[in-house]
Write a structure and sequence with these properties.
This protein has helices at about 5-10, 40-50, 180-210; strands at about 15-20, 30-40, 60-70, 75-80, 85-90, 95-105, 105-115, 120-125, 135-145, 165-175. The protein is of the alpha+beta class and about 210 residues long. The strands form 2 sheets. Strands 1-2-10-9-8-7-6-3 form an 8-stranded antiparallel β-sheet, with helices on one face. It has a two-stranded antiparallel ribbon with strand order 4-5. A hairpin with a 3-residue loop joins β7 and β8. The radius of gyration is 18 Å and the shape is globular.
Length: about 210
């Protein structure tokens, strides 16, 4: 199914792509934001996004994914709940993973540090000093939307084991480490960012939609 088709099934979203000031006509920095209503519960969507080990099975351009370290902080940290807009104490899970991105004729590895604030936020930051990115930060936020009496289903075509739906907000900002990477990967990464939510929606359908 096409990205447009998945968006029609899942619900309307909002997307914005920002290209920051350029160097010699080529931008090293980019920002992208997107949102989409998934016809699945927040817990289901959170589990899919947090399954970093299996990104290589469904995430665009990800050809390798391996968790190096997985730990739960013993101290509770304050995290902003996107539903209430209040900070709340939670137990944060911290994952370090090695990811391989493939875009012909190149492939690059980088290390990602992932903070998982169950059940409403996941933040991933690339380790500084990598060959591909000088900086990259990805933020996911999940707001569960419980159906009200009389509401129509999110989509009559997508089956789900839950009557709940989830507003998924995704943002990424990154800066390439060099003009060489910016030249070879800029267009590819634009396409990857635009296809990202559809890939996770497709994964949810694969796991929970039957």
């Amino acid at each position: 199914m096409t990205l447009a088709g998945l968006r029609r099934l899942a619900g309307t979203g909002a997307r914005t792509f920002f290209t920051l000031p350029t160097l010699g006509g080529l931008s090293l920095q980019k920002q992208y934001r997107d949102s989409l209503v998934f016809p699945f519960s927040r817990e289901q969507v959170f589990q899919v996004v947090s399954d970093v080990d299996r990104y290589c099975e469904f995430v665009p351009m990800c050809v390798g994914s391996k968790v190096l370290r997985d730990s739960l902080r013993t101290d509770r940290v304050l995290s902003m709940n996107p539903e209430t807009q209040r900070t709340e104490p939670i137990s944060r899970r911290c994952v370090q993973a090695e990811l391989m991105v493939g875009y012909p004729p190149f492939s690059e590895r980088y290390t990602s540090n992932v903070e998982l604030d169950h059940p409403w936020r996941i933040v991933a930051t690339a380790t500084p000093g990598g060959a591909m990115f000088k900086h990259m930060r990805t933020v996911w936020e999940f707001v569960e939307k419980r159906p009200r009496q009389g509401d129509a289903p999110v989509s009559p075509f997508v089956l789900s084991t839950s009557s709940a739906s989830t507003l998924v907000s995704f943002s990424i900002e990154f800066e390439f480490a060099s003009l060489v990477h910016a030249h070879t990967a800029s267009l590819v990464f634009d396409q990857m960012a635009k296809r990202n939510l559809a890939a996770y929606l497709g994964r949810c359908q694969q796991l929970y939609g039957k």
